[in-house]
Amino acid sequence: MNRDIPGGATGVISGAMSSPQAKPLRLGVNIDHVATIRNARGEAYPDPARAADLAMQAGADGITAHLREDRRHISDADIDALAALARKRGRPLNLEMAATPEMEAIALAHRPHAACLVPERREEVTTEGGLDVAGQHNHLAPVVANLKAAGIRVSLFIEADPAQIAAAHALGAQVVELHVGAYCLAVRERRPEAAEHYRRLREGAALAASLGLEVHAGHGIDYETVSAVAAIPEFAELNIGHFLIGEAIFTGLDPAIRRMRLLMDAARAGAAPSETTQEAAA
Questions:
Q1: C-alpha 114: how far from its chain's center?
Q2: Distances (CA, A) of 168 to 132, 233, 243
Q3: Which CATH number applies to 26-281: 1.10.287.990, 3.20.20.70, 3.20.20.190, 3.40.50.300?
Q4: Contact, 10 vs 230, CB < 8 A?
Q5: Does the predicted model carry a pTM greater than 0.90?
Q6: For the chain, first and last CA: distance in Å?
Q7: Any idea which residues carry the catalytic annotation?
Q8: Which residue from 17, 64, 70, 253 could staple onto 248, CB 3.0 to 4.6 Å apart?
């Protein structure tokens, strides 16, 4: 087996093992696609806030929701409900948003724990790559400053590119979320460039951490890829949504999240899950 890429959900990556003193890894669950299902019929169900509550009970450390400009899934009313639920449960809400005046005003009104600035194009199906922080410094700087002044942690969704990481640090963001989608897709399609994508993630995470940035990962993570991503010791949080909501159709949301949590914890501890742990997670 090539030890530079995962050998399935229980694969452990050479050189990416964390020490026994490694920090716990947080799980943020993105509940956007609960709203996608609701909106397909124009009904009031399924309720994203209910999904968020169940996710937290199942082991999610926080909730992520992306309020898009076209409101294709999460709505303004959802953000109202999620913000209230997060306060009630004492858990963080991570608001994904484009860096626009409208979204900035919504974030400042709700004051979520964190705001993750993401690129957004109306014609895209899902977020296609990271934010060009280096090229949009002047546009992003006032948004970042205003959110920080309101006590909101600012995260930037970027590629594991040294220039983008350095630009995020210069901009004053507290967090970067590295786009791991290309790596995850390459693994699922069994393409050899998965190893190169993984190397970039490892090096990018190390660089970001060395600059004092908190490092998260997101986009495309599933049971097959989570162990390798979680084994990168600089990652403090993984944000996972589409896969978990899809898996919940077959197993239920609680078991889907608990299995993901077990795989993350086993990888962060520096070992693949035992057969007993895997059976409990299944």
A1: 12
A2: 10, 20, 28
A3: 3.20.20.70
A4: no
A5: no
A6: 25
A7: 66, 96, 219
A8: 253
